[in-house]
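Supplementary Methods. Inverse-folding protocol.

Structures were first reduced to a discrete structure-token string of length 179. This string, shown here, constituted the complete conditioning input.
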């Protein structure tokens, strides 16, 4: 297992559409292990492979609340939403790729998701509550969509400007330190 760097906004890779996993092999399993290690270290409750620079349709999640709770790791390979409720719900969301920014987002209250597990077996899950919010958030990542895309244009532009400015400052600081 290896801890990986999480890509931060405004990195353009976050807008890539991830490719389906053709074959679940040792490399896929290593990727999933790295994703869990990275997600737990962040700490976060969900991570899409693209967030560590791998444009593959792989999601890891663990909705257990506290570090002392028993872990409940979940892996979704090639997840797809097959149905959504008309009913909406609002949850506060954050993102490991947009650190320390949280906002209320409205999404379908329930979704049915089809996916493969690490053994390549197909499953379907009906998700509500936090699970529904999290899986929709992570599947959005696989499609190059960020949670800020669900906000007003004004809020979204503010966030993008803020993180672009931070990235430029970090690059400038790194250049100064190297000189």
């Amino acid at each position: 297992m290896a801890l990986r760097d999480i890509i931060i906004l405004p990195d353009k890779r976050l807008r890539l559409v991830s490719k389906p996993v053709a074959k679940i092999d040792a490399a896929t399993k290593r990727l999933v292990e790295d994703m869990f290690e990275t997600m737990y270290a962040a700490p976060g409750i969900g991570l899409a492979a693209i967030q560590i620079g791998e444009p593959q349709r792989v999601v890891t999640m663990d909705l257990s609340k506290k570090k002392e709770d028993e872990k409940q790791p979940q892996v979704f390979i090639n997840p797809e939403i097959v149905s959504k409720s008309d009913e909406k719900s609002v949850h506060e969301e954050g993102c490991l790729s947009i650190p320390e920014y949280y906002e209320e987002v409205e999404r379908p209250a329930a979704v049915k998701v089809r996916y493969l597990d690490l053994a390549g077996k197909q499953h379907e899950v009906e998700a509500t509550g936090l699970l529904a919010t999290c899986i929709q958030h992570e599947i959005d990542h696989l499609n190059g969509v960020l949670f800020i895309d669900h906000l007003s244009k004004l809020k979204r532009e503010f966030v993008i400007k803020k993180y672009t400015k931070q990235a430029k400052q970090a690059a400038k600081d790194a250049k100064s330190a190297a000189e």
